[in-house]
């Protein structure tokens, strides 16, 4: 077992998972956070899944360092899916400002200059971005355009930004041909522009085009991250992606239901590893370029994932359900669903010294321990 996580499964609590993860993130980002000290970091969509550790990692850094190393954080969100308890609990932190704001509107002028920006304001769950397709496209295109324009004006007025990160997605690759898996950043994609997932996939693709052209036209340090199947603490149990869906069924004492034949494969990246990668892209990434952030191995089937989770639930809390197959009532559930998803991360290794550390089995165990302590009802 990884030496940083030596607790037996039954001893691992949700609070311990978060505390260990935050300490681990800050240890691995010593150089990047030191570069950001004294600066202002703006995070759009900061109430979402990735915001959970993006925000808390910086605040943990601030609490464990002196005032001179503090990073000011502005967290912006329209709370379309509610205000999470973890964010409410942080209210009053002197280094954080919470801003209820729809990113498709211009930011208030009184925020002052922004040094680092992370644009994470987009719904990433297929169930929910299909429910809010226009809002999803607006955030990835119009909201991004407004943020980039604000950065351009700052640049013109003598306060250039230090870094800008756009959260793209591995979904921009669509369903790659077998000879393009594992997939490098140079692969151009095989994507539908009219299918049920297009509102997300195509708006992310155009968002990258905006970023590249602003970086080139105005010489600004704008980068893009392409996440590959992140999971872990902060991902709502009602998110309707595969891991929280399985966890929700486990805690309800139900069987784990696969809504496919179980053969599609993915690699999964624990969120603490991913967040380390994202901050590295923000601070050290090459302007106008994308970076795959994820795990290269193991590439596993959905059936294998379900079986691993069932085994982990048995170890953690005596889960005794089984894995079953069923058909989705949604006729478009599997439309344009990629059969395989696996990255090449050589570019992130070379440019950023990024290397995932958390094995899948350990990450799933930590995720289930966190869900065990965070089963509160969330209907949004």
The CATH architecture assignment of the domain at 14-231 and 269-295 and 340-359 turns out to be 3-Layer(aba) Sandwich
Cα(first) to Cα(last) distance is 36 Å
- Share of helix among residues? 40-55%
- What is the CATH topology classification name of the domain at 14-231 and 269-295 and 340-359? Rossmann fold
Measured by DSSP, the beta-strand proportion falls in: 5-15%
According to CATH, what is the class of the domain at 14-231 and 269-295 and 340-359? Alpha Beta
List keywords for this structure.
Rossmann fold; three-stranded mixed β-sheet; seven-stranded parallel β-sheet; alpha/beta; 380 residues
Characterise the protein shown here.
The protein is built from twelve helices and 14 strands. With 380 residues, it is of the alpha/beta class. It has a domain at 14-231 and 269-295 and 340-359: Rossmann fold. The strands form four sheets. It has a seven-stranded parallel beta sheet with strand order 3-2-1-4-5-6-11, sandwiched between helices. Strands 12-9-14 form a three-stranded mixed beta sheet. A two-stranded parallel ribbon has the order 7-10. α7 (198-218) links the parallel β5 and β6 (222-227). The longest helix is centred in the middle third of the chain and has 24 residues, at 133-156. Residues 1-9 have low confidence and may be disordered.
């Amino acid at each position: 077992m990884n030496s940083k996580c030596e607790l037996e499964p039954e001893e691992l609590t949700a609070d311990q998972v978060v505390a260990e993860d935050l300490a681990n993130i800050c240890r691995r980002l010593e150089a990047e956070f030191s570069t950001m000290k004294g600066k202002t970091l703006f995070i759009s969509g900061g109430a979402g899944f990735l915001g959970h550790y993006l925000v808390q990692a910086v605040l943990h850094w601030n609490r464990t360092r002196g005032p001179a190393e503090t990073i000011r954080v502005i967290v912006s969100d329209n709370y379309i899916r509610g205000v999470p308890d973890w964010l409410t609990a942080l209210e009053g932190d002197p280094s954080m400002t919470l801003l209820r704001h729809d990113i498709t509107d211009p930011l208030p002028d009184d925020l002052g200059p922004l040094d680092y920006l992370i644009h994470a304001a987009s719904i990433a769950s297929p169930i929910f971005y299909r429910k809010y397709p226009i809002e999803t496209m607006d955030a990835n295109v119009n909201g991004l355009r407004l943020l980039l324009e604000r950065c351009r004006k700052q640049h013109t007025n003598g306060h250039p930004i230090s870094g800008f990160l756009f959260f793209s997605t591995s979904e921009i690759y669509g369903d790659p041909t077998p000879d393009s898996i594992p997939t490098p950043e140079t692969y151009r994609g095989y994507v539908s522009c009219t299918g049920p997932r297009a509102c997300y996939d195509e708006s992310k693709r155009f968002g990258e085009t905006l970023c590249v052209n602003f970086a080139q036209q105005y010489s600004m340090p704008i980068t893009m991250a392409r996440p590959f199947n992140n999971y872990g603490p902060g991902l709502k149990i009602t998110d309707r992606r595969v891991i929280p869906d399985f966890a929700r069924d486990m805690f309800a004492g139900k069987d784990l239901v696969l809504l496919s034949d179980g053969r599609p494969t993915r690699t999964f990246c624990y969120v603490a590893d991913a967040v380390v990668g994202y901050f590295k892209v923000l601070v050290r990434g090459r302007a106008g370029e994308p970076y795959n952030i994820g795990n290269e191995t193991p590439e596993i089937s959905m059936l294998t994932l379900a079986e691993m989770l069932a085994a982990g639930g048995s170890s953690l809390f005596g889960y005794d359900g089984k894995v079953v197959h069923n058909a989705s009532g949604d006729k478009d559930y599997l439309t344009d669903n990629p059969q395989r998803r696996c990255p090449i991360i050589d570019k992130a290794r070379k440019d950023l010294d990024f290397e995932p550390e958390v094995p899948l089995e350990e990450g799933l165990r930590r995720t289930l321990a966190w869900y065990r302590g965070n089963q509160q009802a969330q209907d949004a």
